[in-house]
């Protein structure tokens, strides 16, 4: 469960995965103390 950061602070959540076929991915979300997404990014690499 996501927990809000302190007021006037941002929280970064990151995830990554590795598939059996060698493909990889990562993603991240940056949220403020109200839970509003400020920035999101995703990257994948196919082999």
Observed structural traits:
47 residues; elongated; 3 strands; 3-stranded antiparallel beta sheet
Structural notes for this entry:
By secondary structure, the chain is mainly beta. It has one domain (11-45). The chain has strands at 11-18, 24-31, 37-45. It has a three-stranded antiparallel beta sheet, with no helix packed on it. Strand 1 and strand 2 (24-31) form a beta hairpin. The relative contact order is 0.32. The mean pLDDT is 94.
Briefly summarize what is shown:
This protein is mostly beta strands and 47 residues long.
SSE sequence, one letter per element: EEE
Oligomer: single chain
Largest sheet: 3 strands, antiparallel
Structural class: mainly beta
Q: What is the number of helical segments per DSSP (H or I, 4+ residues)?
A: 0
What is the element layout, followed by pairings?
Layout (H helix, E strand, L loop, with lengths): L10 E8 L5 E8 L5 E9 L2
Antiparallel strand pairs: 1-2, 2-3
């Amino acid at each position: 469960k996501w927990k809000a950061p302190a007021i006037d602070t941002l929280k970064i959540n990151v995830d990554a995965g590795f598939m059996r076929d060698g493909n990889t991915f990562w993603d991240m979300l940056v949220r403020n103390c109200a839970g509003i997404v400020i920035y999101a990014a995703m990257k994948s690499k196919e082999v």
